[in-house]
Amino acid sequence: MPEHAILCNTVRHKMYVGAYKEIDYFLLQQHPHEPSQLTAQEFEEAVKAVESMTLEQMQRLGMFEIFGNTNPQARQATAELVQWLDQQITEELIQQYIQLANRGNWTAVMALDTLKRRISETRKYHQQLESN
Question: How far is CA 7 from the centre of its chain?
Fold first, then answer.
């Protein structure tokens, strides 16, 4: 498990860094009774999509969101940070996320859902390129 996490407040456009356990607890308090947006079938599909990819494909797609900024220097710094973070993805990390999601960890479920969407979007993009 990570020691620290970044929390992005999309309403106030601010980011916070804190201990992972504290941020995870905050998110659970913020959404205490909110069931996962994923059905059991969607969750299984997300896990299968992640498990069917090679490590290289996973690193190219990444598990980390890119935060936009109008400042070109900030965009470049963000892109470099995301690229570095994506290189930290390992098969062991992916398996840990799957195990945590299976135990109901909200953060892991959301990460797998985000990754599933990115995989789907990338596949559609590549299909469009091939058909043109």
Answer: 13
Q: How far is the C-alpha of 26 from the C-alpha of 36, rounded, in Å?
A: 16
Report d(CA 46, CA 114) in Å as an integer: 9
Percent of the chain with pLDDT over 70: 80
Q: What is the chain's mean pLDDT, rounded? A: 77
19: left (phi over 0), alpha (psi -120 to 50) or beta: beta
User: pLDDT at residue 85 above 80?
Assistant: no
CA distance 110 to 122: 18
